[in-house]
Amino acid sequence: MSALLARRSAAFLLPLWLLAAGCQRPNSILLIEVASAGDIHPTWFRVTITASLDSRALVVPPDAGAPLTLPISFTVELDRSHIAPVTVAIEAFDDTQSIVGCGSTVQRHIEVGGQTVIPVLMDPTCGQGTPPVDAGADDGGGAGLDAGAD
């Protein structure tokens, strides 16, 4: 009798074990929110995500169309084996393939297996900036735009 009971228990436990082995834990979801201090209207983004020394580049949206209005957001699924920090670098392009903005951020902590919001602020000058305008008398200095020599 106990041998029969042991065989039935083993037959019942094996499918449960196989079911548990087939379950995967969810990957991490990165909700990337893109905004700009300036007025830019890109048609697509080149996004590079770096996590755990691995980089992945993608194009958002996959098929460029009409100009996009910022702020905008999209999600990226990240394998749960990748942990923070996560770097997100974005270049924004217009319909002539010219860069109209760029930005990057480092997210120090992510919700592994959950959703993490990562804001990226786009800079229309891509860090180059423009010289300050002072329009004062020409002082012979190099920085800024002066009125020029009289």
Question: Can you summarize this structure?
Answer:
This protein has 150 residues and is mostly beta strands.
Topology:
Layout (H helix, E strand, L loop, with lengths): L1 H21 L5 E9 L7 E8 L2 E7 L11 E7 L7 E8 L5 E9 L7 E8 L28
Parallel strand pairs: 1-7
Antiparallel strand pairs: 1-4, 2-3, 2-5, 5-6
Percent helix range: 10-25%
Low-confidence stretches: 1-21, 131-135, 142-150
Question: What is the number of helices?
Answer: 1
Main sheet strand line-up = 3-2-5-6
Determine Rg (CA atoms, Å): 26 Å
Strands, count: 7
Distance between the termini: 112 Å
The CATH topology of one domain is given as Immunoglobulin-like
SS content category: mainly beta
How would you portray this structure in words?
- The chain is mainly beta and about 150 residues long.
- The chain has a domain at about 25-120: Immunoglobulin-like (Sandwich), CATH 2.60.40.
- The chain contains one helix and seven strands, in the order H-E-E-E-E-E-E-E.
- It has one helix at about 1-20; strands at about 30-35, 45-50, 55-60, 70-80, 85-95, 100-105, 115-120.
- A four-stranded antiparallel beta sheet has the order 3-2-5-6, with no helix packed on it.
- Strand 2 and strand 3 form a beta hairpin.
- The longest helix is centred in the first third of the chain and has 21 residues, at about 1-20.
- The radius of gyration is 26 Å and the shape is globular.
- It starts with a helix and ends in a 28-residue tail after the last strand.
